[in-house]
Write a structure and sequence with these properties.
The chain is an all-alpha fold. It folds into two domains: 2-98; 109-155, no CATH class. It is built from seven helices and no strands. The radius of gyration is 18 Å and the shape is globular. The mean pLDDT is 77.
Length: 155
């Protein structure tokens, strides 16, 4: 979603595009700063598993809304900012429950070092691989696919 969101911010073709992309980053960071402490309180008071599931479902709904708006050609910068703010808020809540606080409750103590290493490795692979795959898709005329056009023939 991050690559698609940043690509949508490039929609205006004038000098405002750089500022629009900056606001996309701002609407992502502000909720993380504001809601991170509150996310820690929520993580300590409520069942982590249920809150994590609810957070993931909410973030999936926001990503689905962004996809539906994009395919319907109804995306605007203000909607992008609002949806991005919601993703940032969900991310702040999710970060308080991921990683070290959750994994020790899921695996036996003797397997904890391996589980933490695996969690870190998967996270880093997703952070590197996700944007790389998205870049390949975008370079392969994926924008035309979203607009109902046929892809160019291979080769």
């Amino acid at each position: 979603m991050q690559v698609g969101r940043d690509q949508l911010a490039h929609l205006p073709a004038d000098a405002v595009a750089a500022r629009a992309l900056g606001f996309v980053g701002l609407t992502r960071v502000v909720p993380i700063v504001v809601f991170s402490l509150w996310g820690g309180v929520v993580a300590d008071r409520y069942d982590r598993r249920r809150v994590m599931i609810a957070t993931q479902l909410a973030m999936t709904a926001v990503a689905s809304a962004l996809a539906a708006l994009t395919f319907a050609r109804r995306e605007t910068l203000w909607l992008l900012y609002a949806l991005n703010f919601l993703v940032g808020r969900g991310g702040a809540l999710r970060r308080a429950r991921r990683g070290r606080p959750l994994i020790p409750r899921l695996v036996p103590p003797e397997e904890l070092p391996g589980a933490l290493s695996l969690n870190f490795s998967v996270f880093q692979a997703a952070m590197i691989g996700g944007p790389a795959i998205a870049g390949l898709i975008l370079a392969g005329h994926a924008g035309a696919l979203g607009r109902g056009a046929r892809p160019p023939p291979p080769g």
